[in-house]
Amino acid sequence: MTIRCEIVSQDRTVFAGDVDIVVLPGAAGEMGILPKHAPVLTTLKFGVIKVRVGGKEELFSVAGGVAEVQPDIVTVLADRGSENIQDIDVVRAEAAKKRAEEYLSNTSPAETDRYLIMEAALRRANLRLDVVQRYRKSGMRIPPSDK
Amino acid sequence: MASAREMRLRIKSVKNISQVTRALETVSASKVRKAINAVTATRSYATKAWQVLRHVAEQPGRDSLHPLLAQRKSVKNTLVVVVTGDRGLAGAYNSNVIRFVSHRFDPLTGSGQHSNPVPVKYIAVGRKGRDLLVRRGKNVIADFSNLPAAPTFSDVSAIGHLAVEEFKNGLADEVYLVYTDFVNMGRQIATVKKILPLELEGEGLVENFEHKSAGPTAAYEYEPDMRVILDEIIPRFTALQVYQAILESQASEHAARMIAMRNATDNAKELVSALQLAYNKVRQQGITNDILDIVGGAEALSAK
Hints:
Chain A has 147 residues and is an alpha+beta fold.
């Protein structure tokens, strides 16, 4: 018994496949979705989506969005910044974090668009780094990106 | 008739032009392909978002779902987002869009038969469109020019947000999107779509549904609640439609430019061969005259 899981962001499909369980960072807390779950529509927080297929776990960072759960399918409409954590480029995320922090510390927190954009960028960069750190520590073997 | 030297220069310059147009044609051909791929990549999100919206719409008590879904009783202001290119040399691509806009929206403003005129405001995407709209004396409230060649969603999401803001604040009661639909390499059609208020009935605004699921059997649970979720989805969906329209328009622009440049190259070739023929005649004429001179001179000498 599996449930279909599709994670799409605005410009690409991040993940699509039949899985055993999906764990979402829902607005009201983590929620694990098994097949035949009741229909739910929820917003997502910044965090990690876990997808398990036959004992193997795949993890995806997600920077907010909406998830629709139906008995046979979970659809995640993810915002920008959703990706398989194996594909996260730590060097790039760190550079982005540094850039954003520099900008934010040199600018008054007026609500200009630029300020908000940089703030969002910083949050995304932090999310990526945080996710990588947590899951690389916890024994998950993540090969350095050789692609 | 021009002198042989002048004609030689003319042939040379036409040949140069044809080289430039051929290069532009090749460049556009590869850009079309990229733009089409980008459009395809956005389809999955658009399809999914649309399905979610439809499912929500099928829930009971949907009359007052969300302000962005509500039809307004009287339309006092209309906003049109017009997508064109930043550059010319693309055949009739830009002027087709503007002609379509005039044809579709000028009657609304009350020039003549329409009973209650509605002011129309414009958001221009692309420099050519902005210039043409301003020249025609339209009310252009915002201008998004010089977009990057392959825009990402975040490059253009501001356009959608602006449209949503205008609608929310009551500065526009209907928002339309005019862009160029890419049918195939030889055919691009200026098209209009109503993006706000969002109409959930009918075929929908997204093409190429992969599959239509039957919809949920039970009512949804919402976390935290329906309003918050719709607040998330609808503005994004609107922005995504704008994004798709821009990508679609870019594919059309490059295709139009490719065809225009191919025609220019063909014309240049024709011109060169016509000029070459004329030049050869002039040259031959010159040689014949020279020979006649010499022969005439020789005759005159031997006659003495």
